[in-house]
Amino acid sequence: MILPLPVILLILAVVLILAVWGLGDLVAGAGRRRRLVERGRLAPGDPAAGLAARLDASLRRTTLGRAVERKLNTAGIRVRVSTFLALLTAAGAAVIVLIGQWIAPVFGLAAAAGVGMAFFSYVRRREERRRDEFVAQLPELARVLSNATNAGLVMRTAIEIAADELADPAGTELRRTADALRLGQPLEDALRDLGARLPSRELGVLVSTLVVATRSGGSLVTALRTIAGTLEERKEIRREVRTIMGEAVVTNWAVGALGLGGLALINIIQPGALRIMSEGLVGQIVLAVAAVLFTGSLLAVRRVTRIDV
């Protein structure tokens, strides 16, 4: 089906706006290191701060902006809050226009809500993936801390050494912890902040062990070596479970693709059938029930395949 000229122009305009916005964000990011000290002294309303920077600062002062910024930082996505929300808005508008060409506009609004859920689902998956990568590095982290403390170094120095030796994401997170310690934050608070940024059972055990050993002065080297062996075994078990559940995960995605592919196939076989169907009450009920069933199946398969080790 060929889209009308106004729709094509609207899509091109959205793409052009996103391209200009992304180019501006790229240029601003290129000189961010050089202007870091100067930008820190700029007032919020100073024109030298730039429109994008001021908009981003205004958004980060809101509750939604702070929540989005925290999720993006935890997921390791180096994107401004304003850029993320602009992409989300543009994608939702494009989906409303495109879906409106096939079925009733009310389903375009539902599709836009689905796009928003997809954006935040992607951020959540990136967050979970980064947390899993950090958990996979915990055995090596425990061994580095054990060797450093066995050599007579204090925990603050051991954390700095681990931050330099380990790759991302462990290196980045430990570097933030080391910076907090250099700024005067107590060791227990810095470790608990680390556990709050990447919540997991394994990291919680490691943080609790470090806090208890710091308070009571127990055998930290022996405890860290024991934890390193246990974490290594848990990592192997998680890898085996993920391999076994790989087929079910693919099935989950296949179920969603079948639903969308079925709608597209109906519209290809009988052009305009979806619009005629969606304009009537019975057709709307059928489409809504089908959407609920497919969504429920996706959630059910995802729930079954999620196993905590």
TrEMBL record:
<dbReference type="InterPro" id="IPR018076">
    <property type="entry name" value="T2SS_GspF_dom"/>
</dbReference>
<keyword id="KW-1003">Cell membrane</keyword>
<dbReference type="InterPro" id="IPR042094">
    <property type="entry name" value="T2SS_GspF_sf"/>
</dbReference>
<keyword id="KW-1133">Transmembrane helix</keyword>
<dbReference type="Pfam" id="PF00482">
    <property type="entry name" value="T2SSF"/>
</dbReference>
<keyword id="KW-0812">Transmembrane</keyword>
<feature type="transmembrane region" description="Helical">
    <location>
        <begin position="79"/>
        <end position="100"/>
    </location>
</feature>
<feature type="transmembrane region" description="Helical">
    <location>
        <begin position="106"/>
        <end position="123"/>
    </location>
</feature>
<feature type="transmembrane region" description="Helical">
    <location>
        <begin position="6"/>
        <end position="31"/>
    </location>
</feature>
<feature type="transmembrane region" description="Helical">
    <location>
        <begin position="281"/>
        <end position="301"/>
    </location>
</feature>
<feature type="domain" description="Type II secretion system protein GspF">
    <location>
        <begin position="142"/>
        <end position="265"/>
    </location>
</feature>
<protein>
    <submittedName>
        <fullName>Type II secretion system F family protein</fullName>
    </submittedName>
</protein>
<keyword id="KW-0472">Membrane</keyword>
<feature type="transmembrane region" description="Helical">
    <location>
        <begin position="244"/>
        <end position="269"/>
    </location>
</feature>
